[in-house]
Amino acid sequence: MRAWSGWIPVILLLIALLAPPVAGEKRPVLPLPPVTAPDGFAGTCYSGYNDPFGQVPGRPFLPLMIQAGSRWDRFDFSWPVLEKREGQWSFAAHDQLVSDLRAAGMNILGILLWTPDWAATGDCIPTPESLWLDRQPSLRHAPVFRPSVAPMSTPPLCMTTPPRGLEQEWNDWTTADGDPVNTWGRFVYTVAYRYRDSVQYWEVWNEPDLSGFWSGSSTDYARLLKVAYRAIKAACPDCKVLFGGIAYYEKPNFYRWVLNQLKSDPEAPAHNYFFDIMAIHLYHRSSSIYDVTQVIRSGMREFVPDRPIWLTETGSPVWNDSSVISPTVPYTWSATMTEAAAYVIQSYANARAAGIERYFFFRAHDDYCDKNRDGDCSDRGIDYGMGELFGLVRNDRTLRPAYVAFQVATTYLVSPTMVTSVNHSSGVRRVTFWGTPRGKISVLWNTLPTATVFSYPATLPTATLVDRLGITRTITATGGVYSLFLPGATANNGGGVGTSDYIIGGEPYLVVETETVPPTATVRSVTVSLPPTVTVSWEGADDAAGIWLYDVQVREETASWANWLTLTTATSGTYGVPRLGTWCFRARAWDRAGNRGDWSPGVCATVTPTRTLHLTVEGVFGDEDGDGMQGPDEPTLTATLRLLDPRGTDAVAPTVGTSWEFTATLPVEIYTLEATPEGWPSPPPGWLPRRIPVEVASGMDTQEVRLSVALRPHRASVYLPLTLRGFAP
Length: 729
Hints:
By secondary structure, the chain is of the alpha/beta class. The chain folds into four domains: about 40-415, TIM Barrel (Alpha-Beta Barrel); about 425-515, Immunoglobulin-like, CATH 2.60.40.1180; about 520-605, Sandwich (Immunoglobulin-like), CATH 2.60.40.10; about 610-715, Sandwich (Immunoglobulin-like), CATH 2.60.40.10. The chain is about 15% helix and about 30% strand. It is built from eleven helices and 32 strands. Strand 4 (about 200-205), helix 7 (about 220-235) and strand 5 form a beta-alpha-beta unit. Helix 9 (about 290-300) packs parallel to helix 10 and helix 10 packs parallel to helix 11 (about 400-410). The radius of gyration is 38 Å and the shape is elongated.
C-alpha cells in the first residue's frame, strides 16, 4: 500500500476531472501544497471570521487563506461598532482580531467607515440594529458590518451621511471654541493611533461613489478624505492612506470630481493631495481589471501626480453550487464555479499587467446569509450576511475550484522582473511574467466562444503546462512554437448586453519555461569622441535563453546612477555629455526568459574643454646653420608628422609629407608636434627628429597655429657601453 499511497491524490483528482459535469454538483476539490513563498501581492477580504455555525473555535478561515498564499486581510473598522455612543469605546473584539491576524503573518488593510447615528447629519433614517454582526453571539470577535444588506433609502440611512463637524479642523475636538467637534477626525486619529504598530494601511470609506455607502456629495467625500489623511498621518506618520475603493460604474467620474477639488486645495501639495494610494473595486468581467484600471490611472494623472493603484475588491459570484443554494439558476453577472476559478487567474494576471500593486479577492468565505441552512435567508434573528456566493471556500470550509486557482496564481505568478500583455487577433489574451523564480511564465486564455489552437513562440525547447487546478505536464516545441489548445469562453451572463458577451475567458493555462540563471553584462569601452560626446559599447552572455535586452546607466563622477537606455537591443551608443568632467557607464542584460542580471562595474571617461584648432605646417626643412629659417641651400625634407596628446596618443591621423594642414576640435591641453625625417634612424650625416609643443588654449573661436619645422643635422652618434653587475662571465 505504501507504494500506491503517493498516487491516491492524483487518482482522485483524475476521477474528479474525468467525471461528466453536472450543473450545481459539489465536487471534492484537492488543494495544492500550502503556498510558502508568495510575493505579498495577493490578499483576501474578511479571512478573520469565526465559524458561522459556532462549531469550530478560533478563526478557521485564516489558516486556509494563509495556505492559499494570501498575505493581506481587509476588513472594517466600523465607527458605530467601535464608538456606539459618543465617548464610549469598545476595542476588545478588534484588538483580538488584529492580534490574531498579525500572529498568523497577515498584513492588514483597515477600512474606516460608517457614521454612528449620534454623529449623523441631515434628514436620515436611524440604522437598524439588525444590520450589525456584533449582535450575533458566534461573531462577537469579528464585528463587521455587511454592506450587501444595507438598503438604499430616501432619506438615507444615517450611517451613510457625512459625520457631524466634518467642516472643522481635523483636530478640533472641543466645543470650548464655540463650534462643533470634528467627530470624524477624532475617531480616525483614535483608531489609527491605537493600531499604529499593527495596521499600516487605511482605506477611507468603502465605495463612496455608490449611494448605498455614501449619501454625501463628492465635495463631502473630499473633505472626509482630507480630514482622515491629516488624522492618520498625525497618529502614524509612516501609515499609508487609500482613497476609498471606487466601484466606478454607477458614477464613473466621481473620483475625478473629488480629485479636482483636492487639486484646488492650497494645502494639498504639502500633504500628497491627501491620499497615498488609489483603491478600486472591479468585479465580474476579467478584462475590466486591465482596461478600467488604465482609464482610472489616466484620469487620476490629470489632477494629481501618479501613485500606486490597489485592487481592494474583485471577485465573481457563482450560481451553480447546489450544496449551498437550491435550485441553482444563472443570473446576470454570475458564473459557474469553473468560470469563477478561471476569473481568479485571469483577473490576477490582468492586475499585474495593469501595474496594480495589490490584489484583494472578495472574499475568503461566503458568509452566506442562510445560517440555519433551511433554504431561506430571511429568518429574523438568525440569518444575516451575503446574498451571493463569492467565497474561495464555503461556510463549511470546503474548497471551491477558485481556491486552487488562487493557489496556482500565488505559486507561479510571483516576483516578476516585468509583466507584459497582448491581445492577439485570434481572440487569445496573453500575459507574460518575465524573470520569475520559476522562469518565464505566460498566462493564456481564449476570449471567444470558439475553441482555438494557438501557436505560442518558444523560448526553450520544452516547457511545463499548468492548468487552473495546478496539474502539470511537459510540452515540446515544434518548429519553434508550442501548439496550445485553448477552449472557448462560456461565461455569457453579462449585464444586459446579450448572450454573445463573454465576461470571463475560457480555461486559462500557464506556460512555464524554466530558465532562472541571470545573464551577465560588461561595458567593453568608453571613449571620448568629438564634439563632446562619449561612445560606449557593451556586451552580454547567457547560458540558455540568450540575450534579449540591455539597460545602460550613466552618472557624473560620484553622483547617483541614472537611466540612459532602457530595454534596448543596441550594443553601443553615443552619449552627449551636458557638462565637462568624468562620466561613468554601466550595463545589465536581460535574457529571453526575462531574467535580469546584475549591473556591471562602471567604466569612466573624462571629457575636457575643447577648441577648434587650425594647424598649418608650412614646411619641413634641414636647418644646417641652426637659425630656424630655411636658407637657399637648406633642403626641404619629407617627414612623418604627428600631433600627440599628453598621453602619447595621436590626436589626429598622422601624415607623411613636406607640409601639413588640418582643422580639428581638440580638448584644451598641451600637445606635441612630432616630425620624424624619412629614413630615421640612420647613421650620420642626416637629420634628427624634432618635437615642438603646441598648446590648444581655451577659447570660443578657431585657434590658428602656423609654423615651420626646422630639423637639426645629425653630425655624429655616440655609443655608451652597458655594464651589468652581479653576473658571472
